[in-house]
């Protein structure tokens, strides 16, 4: 692992120096050097070049730098499965066969393993992250629309009025922050062990909450034969400003993770997922369609200054999100029906 990531650093330096992320060109320049300098195999050298090029492509203004314990990329040439409980991996000293622990939930999927895998080292344990093929069912033809408004105070609110509050997450975050501060100020060996134990606890809690919310939303869409409609919030952190006291909440807002969970759960269930422009969804009146900031006298309340329509602000935003698709529902249903009949047109 250390030699592989050292080779990646060497390739990253060359890529930055030559201003190129072309794997073929870099391989001609660095292949022989990294094999001799770091003692890695031919295919491992190819994987190191590929990893460095992908990192450099993401931001060409920064020289790629890799942690010694960074992931090692394995493909089918340097990794093979020996049943469900053993795997053969290439090392600096040749192949070794290692026992693998797989939970009952993932074991049935191992017959669909394909492509490359990442060997990662976390908290003293090696994990092999493998890619599996999951057959994706045909998208159902939607009859209705379920709009979902994503936020911080309420993590998600759907157009039927169901709210998924973020109050529990905020309490856990505040509790963990206070506990960490107390332990850091204490500084004893016991406090340091406790801090290590707390590492990643908040992130794991966030993931669990997002999994539960996404599961409920997809289940509701299945029950009501609906398409799920979300706001495309890409880049929202750069577009909005908040007071200093709220910056921590804003940067801990895991809306993208929730969208990913909804995306793959909807794909497995055959539920269509549609993303729309979020502009003015929280300021538009669903009755008279007046768009005004004055329609939101408070964060939680919506009251139209024109027709007087009022209600919970997040629920009305979710209704507006659903309405932007439902007005074109016949067209949407026809498109999904055509995609089912002619899957090759989906691209």
UniProtKB/TrEMBL annotation:
The keyword DNA-binding applies. Residues 255-321 form the Cas12f1-like TNB domain. Residues 131-233 form the Probable transposase IS891/IS1136/IS1341 domain. Transmembrane segments: none annotated. One of its GO terms (molecular function) is DNA binding. InterPro entries: Cas12f1-like_TNB, Transposase. One of its GO terms (biological process) is DNA recombination. This is Transposase, IS605 OrfB family. It comes from Methanothrix soehngenii (strain ATCC 5969 / DSM 3671 / JCM 10134 / NBRC 103675 / OCM 69 / GP-6).
């Amino acid at each position: 692992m250390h030699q592989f990531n050292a080779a990646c650093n060497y390739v990253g330096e060359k890529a930055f120096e030559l201003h190129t992320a072309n794997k073929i060109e870099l391989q001609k320049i660095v292949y022989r050097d990294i094999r001799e300098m770091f003692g890695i195999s031919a295919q491992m050298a190819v994987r190191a070049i590929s990893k460095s090029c992908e990192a450099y492509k993401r931001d060409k203004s920064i020289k790629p730098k890799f942690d010694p314990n960074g992931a090692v990329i394995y493909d089918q040439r340097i990794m093979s499965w020996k049943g469900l409980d053993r795997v053969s991996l290439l090392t600096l000293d040749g192949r070794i066969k290692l026992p693998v622990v797989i939970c009952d939930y993932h074991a049935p999927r191992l017959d669909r393993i394909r492509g490359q895998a990442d060997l990662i080292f976390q908290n003293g344990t090696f994990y092999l992250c493998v890619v599996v093929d999951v057959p994706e069912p045909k998208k159902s033809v939607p009859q209705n629309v379920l709009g979902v408004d994503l936020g911080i105070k309420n993590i998600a609110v759907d157009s039927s009025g169901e709210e998924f509050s973020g109050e529990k997450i905020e309490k856990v975050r505040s509790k963990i922050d206070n506990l960490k501060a107390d332990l850091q100020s204490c500084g004893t060996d016991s406090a340091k062990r406790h801090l290590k134990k707390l590492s990643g606890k908040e992130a794991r809690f966030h993931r669990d909450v997002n999994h539960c919310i996404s599961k409920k939303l997809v289940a509701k869409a299945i029950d009501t034969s609906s398409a799920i409609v979300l706001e495309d919030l890409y880049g929202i952190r750069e577009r909005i400003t908040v007071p200093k006291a709220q910056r921590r909440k804003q940067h801990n807002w895991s809306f993208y993770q929730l969208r990913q969970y909804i995306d793959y759960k909807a794909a497995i269930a055959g539920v269509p997922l549609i993303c729309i422009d979020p502009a003015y969804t929280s300021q538009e009146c669903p009755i008279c369609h007046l768009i005004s900031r004055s329609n939101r006298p408070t964060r939680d309340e919506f009251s139209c200054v024109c027709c007087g329509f009022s209600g919970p602000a997040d629920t009305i935003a979710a209704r507006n999100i659903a309405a932007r698709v439902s007005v074109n529902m016949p067209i949407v249903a026809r498109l999904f029906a055509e995609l089912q009949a002619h899957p090759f047109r989906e691209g």
